């Protein structure tokens, strides 16, 4: 079997609100580049990646994989990922690996999870991922801790989720910590609490907020300060596990992070950690050094979410509920529409490969929507309600 073509399309799907974060605002939609890898036997594999419109990048990579066997992932990895400095194409390689694994599963008539060792669970729990919102459903903006706590309770009731994570670094730190205090009060001692300022807080602020939160017994404090040094400095001074999806988020930095004592829990990400097989490599390292593992969300659509579900289903040590932006999407590009939450979980898709198929009508619809809206990474840091605002790291 040989790869004979790689096709890519960029699509955008509207959200139910504009999501604020410490470097700007998601302006009411997410966008992803979807790839189809086509073989000489007519089997097609699906992949997906974020980071803006990636069509031109895939066109440049296409000649490197044409003629290769989709089962020979090590050769593909060498030609795509290792060929222009180390990890320069990590995001793109991961999408290609997902598509090749989809092909393999379809050829073998086995689910993608079987290619990674087999499922130990067939449903994956997810969190209430909380963002401070502009133009939320029903109108208005989130302005105070009570808004976020009410939103968390709503997601708990509607989706059945039993953990939350606040995307912090937007409001004053003490107000954001108050969100966790209200959620603990309203949802009880067994509800999981997390907070993630994405490294924007200074070490001093992160330590101060961490000590306030210690009695709340959070599951973890994610990227409390900037860089490996920042996380290590905070971790030494608080009694809350420190997690990361930023430092480290590649194998080059994993050794230094462990030696420095910078982290307790590493969030896996298919695109940062070289695809599903790379995530399994990461998990083996984390097991060796007694680090926990959780799952990062990159604002994925149904193709990547399917890959995440398959991968997570094979990892015994992934005991934390996963991140997902999925409840903000108004639709999906896969047949059947949005995957369903049941008791806070999403079921691993059944069938060969990823177990999902593209809905061509939806693809055409959301291609047109992307063409209308454009690539938001050109204005990712803009806040239309605060035109003079810009992100600042470590000043609070």
Give the arrangement of secondary structure elements:
Elements: E1 3-14, E2 18-21, E3 24-26, E4 29-39, E5 44-49, H1 55-65, H2 73-80, H3 90-108, E6 123-125, E7 128-130, E8 133-134, H4 145-159, E9 164-167, H5 173-187, E10 194-196, H6 203-213, E11 220-222, H7 227-235, E12 242-244, H8 251-260, E13 265-268, H9 275-288, E14 292-295, H10 302-312, E15 341-342, E16 345-347, H11 360-373
Parallel strand pairs: 7-9, 9-10, 10-11, 11-12, 12-13, 13-14
Antiparallel strand pairs: 1-4, 2-3, 2-8, 4-5, 6-16, 15-16
Helix pairs in contact: 2-3, 4-5, 5-6, 6-7
Biggest pleated sheet? 7 strands, parallel
Helical residues, percent: 25-40%
- Helix and strand sequence: EEEEEHHHEEEHEHEHEHEHEHEHEEH
Query: What portion of the residues fall into strands of 2 or more residues?
Result: 15-25%
Number of H- or I-type helical stretches: 11
**Straight-line distance between termini:** 56 Å
What would you note in describing this structure?
The protein is an alpha/beta fold. 35% of the residues lie in helices and 18% in strands. The chain has eleven helices and 16 strands. It has helices at 55-65, 73-80, 90-108, 145-159, 173-187, 203-213, 227-235, 251-260, 275-288, 302-312, 360-373, and strands spanning 3-14, 18-21, 24-26, 29-39, 44-49, 123-125, 128-130, 133-134, 164-167, 194-196, 220-222, 242-244, 265-268, 292-295, 341-342, 345-347. The protein has a seven-stranded parallel beta sheet with strand order 7-9-10-11-12-13-14, with helices on one face. A three-stranded antiparallel beta sheet has the order 1-4-5. Strand 2 and strand 3 (24-26) form a beta hairpin. Helix 5 runs parallel beside helix 6. The radius of gyration is 20 Å and the shape is globular. It starts with a strand and ends in a 23-residue tail after the last helix. The mean pLDDT is 95.
